[in-house]
Design brief:
The complex is a heterodimer.
Chain A (H helix, E strand, L loop, with lengths): L23 E8 L2 E8 L5 H7 L7 H5 L7 H16 L5 H32 L4 H5 L3 H22 L8 E2 L2 E2 L5 H5 L2 H19 L13 E4 L10 E4 L4 E2 L4 H4 E5 L6 E5 L9 H8 L5 H9 L12 H22 L15 E9 L2 E9 L5 E7 L1 H20 L4 H13 L12 E6 L2
Parallel strand pairs in A: 1-13
Antiparallel strand pairs in A: 1-2, 3-4, 5-6, 6-7, 8-9, 10-11, 11-12
Helix pairs in contact in A: 3-4, 4-6, 4-12, 6-8, 8-12, 11-12, 13-14
Chain B lengths: L3 E7 L9 H9 L7 E6 L4 H7 L3 E11 L7 E5 L10 E2 L7 H11 L5 E8 L11 H17 L4
Parallel strand pairs in B: 1-2, 1-3, 3-6
Antiparallel strand pairs in B: 3-5, 4-6
Classes of the chains: A alpha+beta, B alpha/beta.
Chain lengths: ~425, ~150
């Protein structure tokens, strides 16, 4: 008999066309101890967006795609502008390149802190939500709220506004901040550096299930920098290609049990994008401070325990704060906020690191710069098969638990990935047909 | 925490009825008595909301709501007296609803002495749309009720 769970209906947070009530579905059938996932979908790639970008000007892409996600608009802006710039032969250098990195730091800070502290930590400490947790862990919640706000402040200042920032454009920015405006953030960022290091220590002490999986990690890799905007697509199982080869290495497949498209490595199958992938493929490029904190937290140069993503998010928060301070220090206000370019026809690709993993955009333009064709592969869709693999492991281990406890285990496992809908309190609608 | 009064409007003006908070604030601009501060927030970031009322003793928060009542219904909640009833959520297209911020502040002991929440039941939250007629029609009433709260009627 099937026992549908009753998810509480409350604030769902996917800022996503026609998907404001975004919810994940997991249907499981158990017969004689055999477990089969019959339906699973947690994120629908932005198909509508791909369709209605057609016919729009190249310059509309950053503002339109920023609307796909309320938590990671910068990632959408960055992948789209870099894709367009690759067509026009524009290269971001100097202060403009640094500002692009700075605004990404802001997004990483706000998104990571929101997820690690307000969404993921309650799972580990056994609370239903951050609100329930706040009364007992006041210091942690207060610090997290302040940290997150410091990330918002960066996005606000460089991006023009906090939500769906509007200041990023193909070729640079509409307006650049003054050195003084940036310097005003320094005292807060200095506080944030300590607070983020404290967060690493706190999360490193959580009880972690002893599980590891043989993930294929994929991230953008830059020769000298921890990745944000530039680099090749690299995996621990042999992928090493430029962003323009995304479709040669990966494919988007329609799976019968899900309405959504999922991505897979053409030759192998599931792969995993996000903080664990970035960390494990780019450890050497983290600052000495972050590497030292990682060692103190008991992490090696790679990490294959998905639950420890919470520690890695905090490490990446330290990295983002440290990088923001460095960028502000070296910033010299540029003479103009953008670089000139000539519009031309062509196909362009952009792969950048959203907080929750690599985000790939591809556009084909006509000679007037109108979009003929667009493709967007969001991180959650890229990790979706990997999430499903993890869920299968959780089900095999805990299928005997009562439904509500099992549901919590499953949600915790999904939340390791910080998927775009994880902010909902009970976001996964689980139906278990126990026969 | 002083006696200052603050009216906070939360919402995204580009998402249909989610824009009711900012719209109410725009209409209050000319009419609030001196000393009443108006703060318009695009999203309900808990730290942002707590910062907005940090020095205030009397706070009115106005937001779109989804509770199952008729579109345009205005509901007043005394948020200091207790949590918003189950089933009421303040519309948010952004990560956390304002009720999360309010409950977070309660848990952290950072609620202002007086906090009244005005929820306006919304109907459509489509990207790029204007207020629905039902919500637009009750804007004047919402403005009057909030003015009464802050002593400007």
């Amino acid at each position: 008999m099937s026992t549908p769970s009753k998810p509480e209906t409350r604030a769902i947070s996917v800022d996503y066309l026609a998907r404001v009530e975004g919810e994940g579905n997991l249907k499981v059938r158990v017969r004689d101890g055999e477990i089969e996932i019959t339906e699973f979908g947690i994120f629908e790639p932005p198909r509508f967006y791909e369709a209605f970008l057609r016919g729009r000007a190249f310059s509309d892409a950053p503002d339109i795609t920023a609307r796909i996600c309320g938590i990671c608009p910068i990632a959408y802006q960055m992948s789209s502008v870099h894709a367009m710039e690759s067509i026009f032969g524009v290269k971001m250098e100097g202060a403009l390149r640094e500002l692009r990195r700075l605004i990404y730091c802001g997004e990483w800070i706000e998104s990571h802190v929101l997820h690690a502290f307000l969404l993921h930590l309650p799972d580990f400490l056994g609370y239903q939500s951050a609100i329930h947790m706040a009364a007992d862990h006041r210091e942690a919640v207060e610090k997290a709220l302040r940290l997150k706000k410091i990330g918002n402040d960066i996005v606000n200042l460089v991006g023009g506004r906090e939500i769906h920032p509007i200041n990023v454009k193909v070729g640079g920015f509409y307006k650049v901040p003054s050195k003084r405006q940036l310097e005003e953030m320094v005292p807060n960022l200095e506080w944030a550096l300590d607070a983020a290091a404290w967060a690493v220590e706190l999360t490193a002490g959580l009880p972690f299930p002893e599980v590891e999986a043989d993930y294929e990690y994929v991230s953008v890799c830059h020769p000298d920098e921890y990745p944000f905007n530039e680099g090749r697509l690299v995996s621990n199982k042999g992928i090493d290609v430029p962003a323009c080869d995304w479709n040669k290495v990966f494919e988007e497949v329609h799976v019968a049990r899900s309405n959504a498209l999922q991505s897979k490595v053409r030759e192998r199958g599931s792969y995993h994008v996000g903080p664990l992938a970035r960390y494990s493929l780019n450890f050497e490029k983290l600052s000495p401070r972050v590497q030292k904190l990682a060692a103190a937290a008991g992490l090696g140069k790679t990490c294959f325990n998905p639950f420890k993503s919470i520690v890695v998010r905090c490490l990446e928060t330290v990295h983002a704060v440290e990088e923001a301070l460095r960028l502000i220090d070296v910033y010299r206000e540029p003479a103009r906020p953008d670089v000139p370019f000539t519009v031309k026809a062509g196909e362009g690709h952009g792969a950048t690191e959203a907080p929750r993993g690599m985000l790939y955009h591809r556009y084909r333009l006509d000679d007037e710069g109108y979009i003929l064709d667009a493709q967007i592969a969001p991180p959650t869709a890229q990790s979706q098969m990997s999430i499903e693999d993890d869920l299968r492991r959780v089900l095999e281990k805990y299928i005997k638990l009562p439904d509500d406890e099992l549901q919590w285990r499953l949600e915790h496992a999904v939340r390791n990935y910080d998927p775009c809908i994880s902010c909902a309190t009970h976001f996964l609608k689980v139906e278990i047909d126990r026969g | 925490m002083g006696d200052a009064a603050v009216v906070i409007g939360v919402g995204n003006p580009d998402r249909g009825d989610d824009g009711v908070g900012p719209q109410v604030l725009a209409r209050l601009q000319e009419r609030v008595p001196g000393g009443v501060r108006l703060v318009c927030l695009a999203g309900a970031d808990p730290a942002g909301i707590m910062e907005a009322w940090a020095d205030a003793g009397r706070v009115v928060l106005v937001d779109a709501m989804v509770s199952g009542t008729a579109p345009g219904t205005i509901t007043r909640f005394d948020a200091v007296a207790g949590p918003l009833p189950a089933g009421v959520r303040l519309a948010s297209t952004h990560v956390l609803g304002a009720e999360t911020a309010v409950e977070m502040a309660r848990a952290l002991g950072r609620l202002p002495a007086h906090l009244v929440v005005y929820g306006v039941e919304g109907q459509r939250f489509t990207a790029g749309s204007a207020l629905s007629p039902a919500v637009a029609a009750v804007l004047p009433a919402a403005v009057e009720r909030i003015l009464e709260e802050v002593g400007g009627a």
